[in-house]
Amino acid sequence: xxxxxxxxxxxxxxxxxxxxxxxxxxxxxxxxxxxxxxxxxxxxxxxxxxxxxxxxxxxxxxxx
Length: 64
Prior knowledge:
By secondary structure, the chain is an all-alpha fold. It is 86% helix and 0% strand.
């Protein structure tokens, strides 16, 4: 089992990103992507919690 097509493509993409961004800015870029992913995850979590509260309120009003 050697390196597959997917691994080669990922390696090429990483090299291209490194060439365009540069080695010095790569950690900053990765940090920004990580923070964006974290904010997106928190946004989905807040949305889910809001939907649960709305569902509880509508169920409470139906029982009365």
